[in-house]
Amino acid sequence: MTLLNFAYKNISRDFKTYFFHFISCTFSVFVFFIFTNLTFHPALKVVDKDSTIGVILNLGLLISLLFSFVFILYSVNNFLKLRSRQFAILNIIGSTNKQFKRIIFYENGLISLGALICGTILGIVFSKFFLMIAETIIGGLNLYFYLPIKAMIFTLLLMGGLFLFISIIAPIVLRKKKIISLLKKEDEAESSYLPIVGLGVAIIIPILIYNRHSESLLMYPLYLLAFILVSYFIFNLLFVVYMFVMKHTKLKFKGAGLIKVSNFNYHIHTNLKTMAITMMLFTITLTSLIYIIGAPRNVEKTTQKILPYSLMYSALNKNIDDKEKANKIKETLKDYKGFKFLEVNYLKFSTPNRDVLISNSMYNKIAKYLKRKPVALKDHDYYMIGTDGKNVPKMGELMGKDLERHQINNNKGATSETIALSGYFTSVTVISDTKYERLSPQLENNRFFAYQFDDWKHYNDEPLAKQLNIDQDNDSLSSAYWYYTTEKLQRNIIAYVGSVLCISFLIGIASLTYSRLYSSAETEIKKYETMIRLGISKQTIKHALSSTIIWIFLLPFIVALMITWGIVIYLDQYTVISYYKIAMYCSLTYLLIEVGLYYLIKYKYQRKIFEVLYQQK
After folding, report:
1. Would residue 294 count as lying in a domain?
2. In 3D, which of 282, 329, 279 has the Cα closest to residue 463?
3. d(CA 508, CA 170)
């Protein structure tokens, strides 16, 4: 019998042992195929791969591939641990290290090949369904069903390469020395990760503190690593507090308390590691999903904050008769419902930056035009206007000195709301009409023209710009329509790609948790067999098993949800639109999904344990 035949018979005779690993691999191929199917769709042929949309699609593929790598590698690790006794016996009866590695390679290769075929077939079967979802979410695209030859080839090549790489490194997971120790693993205490974690924290935290103002990309992996290590410490501390409370309140000796504590403590370091990784994945997934789902909902409000007008025309070249073109635009649009026109005059300083002044009366006209609150300024007062729609502006040092020379030094407040296209000005300062009149002869007088009408979301200004020879070099016509449509398409694609990824991650996290429980099921069964002989009831064992799942699955989720809300509250002061309402809806959705996954894992795990325990009895 060849080693390949031996590996095949191992899988066919004991497929239940390989089933979970096979499902994990198939799911990874399926998710990756869904993205490649969209990326290579004929409707997206016009998309430049270097454009924002192209980058989003490619980034989705990359994240999906990385997710598959981590997910499958973790699955392989647990799968090999589950079969450690079989490998140990093979090693004892005389299999060489080379034969041992080839058996593992062949087994992983056969499972990977089956997963590639099944995952791709499932992807083709459900491709129309996911394209319909994508078409509904993205909008504006006809994502019809097509035979995804390129997607199939791309999936087979990339995922096949990934599986081949994992099959090659899989034997490294179980070394010869490790196999013999795993043969009697239930008799050995787990090694503590605390010394390694403590050393890692002692090294990384000072580096992060010293480089806290650094914008280097190399800092982000360190932040992530520090987050995981600190999480490990936090969960370790929580368990210590839990043990203290159980001991000193004598709750440990009530009901299944003693079993619950010892059950978690038996695999404490593996459990803490699982909790830290799970919490990190939950935090990333929950936070990402809030902003991914919220992005398309806020396009209209964001557009109005970035460009508060339907159209904005300005001449950059002084030789252009901007007044004439502005009037032609006005004549073209005057019959549109809700049409309004405004000429905005301002003074510009003779500096490379576009620092400008507008009069109090001019600002109040704009405020009335945009339905904002007016301001009343005296000669020494000034009022700051936002330039990017996000941040409340502050007076620059040089600008402050210029105004100080003209005795304008009393700050009457500021607003983040813009009066022009975001980034069009460097700073905008409102001053009294009297001061404006005095400074007018000393500074450059300039203007732009604003147009407002109701149906701006469907107005394509391209024919108008072409008719008036507006080339965006000598003069410009900025349109809220183009920002809205482009941004909406980009955000909808992000919403689709991100939602599929986040849901995949949530399923993956639940799968990783179950994989961790499943890998230790054999040890748990032996332990509970002894307990049953001592008279422990089935209900008590149920409570003990549920307690472990709560520790390693629900608790990380609750902590992750708290961290997510902290991130949302912090970032809300920097975002154009508030995400509180969306975060609330997402949190409730997360809770429902999490409770559902908890009961599913609980049911599957308890059934796995009880099938053996009470079948034998």
Report:
1. no
2. 329
3. 20
